[in-house]
Amino acid sequence: MLRLLRRTLTILFLLPASVMAQGLEDLVTSLPDGDFDDRAQVVNAIALSGDPRALNVLELLSDGQLSYLREDGRIVTVRDEGDDDVAYDVLSEERIGVVGRRDARDVRVNNGLRRDIAAAIGRMGLQNVDPAVRLDAAERAFRARDPEQIDALRAALAAETDPEVTTVFEQALAAAVLRSDAGEADKRIAIAALAARGDRDALSALSPALTDPVLAGEAQAATDKIERSIASWGLAQNLWYGISLGSVLMLAAIGLAITFGVMGVINMAHGELVMIGAYTTYLVQETIRNSFPEMFGWSLAIAVPLAFVTAGAVGVAIERGVVRYLYGRPLETLLATWGISLILQQAVRSIFGPNNREVGNPEWMSGAVDIGQMAMTWNRIWILVFALAVFAALMLVLKRTPIGLQMRAVTQNRAMAASVGIRTGWVDAMTFGLGAGVAGLAGVALSQIDNVSPNLGQSYIVDSFMVVVFGGAGNLWGAFAGAFSLGIANKFMEPWVGAVLAKILILVAIILFIQKRPRGLFALKGRAVDS
Amino acid sequence: MTKLIDRRMGFFLIALFIAVVAIPVGNLAIEGKPVASYVVQLSGKYLCYALLAVALDLVWGYCGILSLGHGAFFALGGYAMGMHLMREIGTRGVYGDPVLPDFMVFLSYEQLPWFWLGFDQFWFAALMCMLVPGALAFVFGWFAFRSRVSGVYLSIITQAMTYALMLSFFRNEMGFGGNNGLTDFKDVLGFDLQSDATRAGLFIASAVALVAGLMIAKAIALSQLGKVLIGIRDAESRTRFLGYRVEGYKLFVFVVSAMMAGVAGALYTPQVGIINPGEFSPANSIEIVIWVALGGRGTLVGAAIGAIFVALAKTLLTGWIPEMWLFALGGLFVFVTLFMPRGVLGVIEESWAKLRRTEPVKEVTP
């Protein structure tokens, strides 16, 4: 420790004038000379040079990617290009040419030097004009926890104006202070700062204080607090994963719930209608890529109505062509729609090929947002929003429109509805079309998170059935509750038992649940049930 | 006895008898092998499918239970036999361990898991290939029928059952070989599985099992109990109000059917030489339903014919034009449900009756 401190002092204050005055080129060339201590001096000089290329050089050095040519001592990076190793000048990026294994030698680094480099990079970043770079440097410094950086951090903190960066500077300072032999008061403040940060890094930064006899109690309290905070963030993250899975399940299942609820038939081709929606998205994106690349951000907005119409039209065709001849025979309908699903699958495979098709995320859907210690990707957030919007729209259609009224009437009592003049056949066709259209919408969403392949529908079909059977038919809230409870339950079990076993347990749980409530959570009541 | 073997059963048994004599003789006894060995193997496989179809027809055709999980019973029977065949490999495996099958050595098992004990005995495996599917059907059916889960809901949860089993058997931790399943079998009861004579023997055994299955199913259908089953199929509530304990009847026939499917699976495994979790896939189970629907629901013989026909078509079509197979199968589902609700046998019998100007056989109207 003392040796390190002395060395830093030497570097900072007693650096030979000759080294200070040199340009970056000379400094870099002198890197291979001498031992690791000499190299550390050069590193610091490079950091202080203020040259914009210095960061790149130091990072390459730290990664062990710098070599020098035996011939003329030039410092190069050697890149692997096919079969050849090609040397590039590290500063000018000039291509020097193919080098053999013996022509270039590595500039060697050890762990001590790497730590010095990290500290030097940290100091360089701390003073940068760009707040993002300073933030990044502060995070690095936090992770480095190097007592030698305390002075640099203090200086940077004093000059800092950005509140977000200030917080991280304080935390970095705290982490470094706990490692140093600073006074008790300073360390108390440091513990408080780390407790406020509350994540796993803060936990490890606190560890030196735990062994300190004076501070152990306080540090222990802070550790406990952080562990609680980590646990609750973990819970929140799991909940988010569950909600996200639930939104996907709901999108996939809600169309099924509509047809099942109104017509009492299980549409086994539902998954393939989802697939059609996904392929519609693919076609829209292909067209946009080829003809109007600047509209790519709008591709999903265009795909949504198109997918609804395409899948809906296929749905109406299925209903008019096959399903309507099988009324009153739900099991036969199940078989016939299964046959249709095989045909649709093979048709897509024959047209588009068996491989996955590339569907891109528009820019506004990529990336992630961090809330506290929780990461939420934008595409998942948008899918949740989309699922809720689809649900709300369907609710409106069912509750506020004439066709919705008729659908509900047919659901509750088909014979009675027919005798008061509702064209039940027409309602069936519309219902089937609506359910299919919603499946198409689900396809647009799923194309953003899953592989678009002919098997897309198959992978969701059992899950969607589970949602419908669990939630109960005849009520959209059933699908809503079913999807989210299954999604959340699944994600909460996953950390304990693994993904596959979690799924198996959910299936078993549903099989058992059906024994208790043979018609799901939100069962229809009344005489219609017996038919 | 005369009723047990009616006209169509008679025709079928005669055809089956001819095949059972002709195929092995053509393969083994005649010079130049007019019947290739793979034909014997394939025919044996088809007969296993036929038995499976008969099992499903018993529950669906006579009791109205559309099980989308019969593939699970079939696969469980297949696994029970597969476990025995694995044990019979003995020291001839790649790792040469006298007790542990290869995959267990590979996954560094210390000893045989408890559920593998006893499978070195053939009689035990033979018992298990009926008992395990039977027990699963009993537990599942006891829960489901008692709480009156029926119709589409029952179909969906049977599908969930086979799906859950598929996921379980894919896991290496289950101790059933994970996604590779059980394979590399050497012999059964001391007979080399690769030899033509053993294959012919297995083929004949499958035929015997099929006949036995048909007879048992027919006997059930003709008995007093069979009449109640048909009553349950056509009007479950009414049957219940007449004082029959519907769930007991359903449970009985479901368990018998599951055991039959298990036997089919047990005969299937040695003939194809592998059993893996893919057999549990929900798609397989639905395919069984189309065999029955095509041949004629509630005809037993029709189910067997449907299975043989579809399996044969699959072998031929996937060989000639692979892309067409799913179109054909899908089209078959739609066509049969729309235009032939009583299946091929129903159509034939109707036209036969028209020709003879007599009433069609009344006994089977689903």
From TrEMBL, chain A:
It is found in: Cell membrane. The chain crosses the membrane at residues 239-258, 296-318, 330-348, 381-398, 465-489, 495-514. Keywords: Amino-acid transport, Cell membrane, Membrane, Signal, Transmembrane, Transmembrane helix, Transport. It is a multi-pass membrane protein. It comes from the Bacteria. GO terms for molecular function: transmembrane transporter activity. Residues 1-21 form the signal peptide. Its main location: membrane. One of its GO terms (biological process) is amino acid transport. CDD domains: TM_PBP1_LivH_like. The keyword Transcription regulation does not apply. Pfam families: BPD_transp_2 (PF02653). InterPro entries: ABC_transp_permease, ABC_UrtB_bac, BCAA_transport_permease. NCBIfam families: urea_trans_UrtB. Belongs to the binding-protein-dependent transport system permease family. LivHM subfamily. This is Urea transport system permease protein. The lineage of its organism: Bacteria, Pseudomonadati, Pseudomonadota, Alphaproteobacteria, Rhodobacterales.
UniProtKB/TrEMBL annotation, chain B:
Pfam families: BPD_transp_2. The keyword Cell membrane applies. Keywords: Cell membrane, Membrane, Transmembrane, Transmembrane helix. One of its GO terms (molecular function) is branched-chain amino acid transmembrane transporter activity. Coiled coil: none annotated. The chain crosses the membrane at residues 12-30, 50-79, 122-145, 152-170, 202-230, 251-268, 288-313, 325-348. It is a multi-pass membrane protein. It is found in: Cell membrane. One of its GO terms (cellular component) is plasma membrane. This is Urea transport system permease protein. It comes from Pontivivens marinum. The lineage of its organism: Bacteria, Pseudomonadati, Pseudomonadota, Alphaproteobacteria, Rhodobacterales.
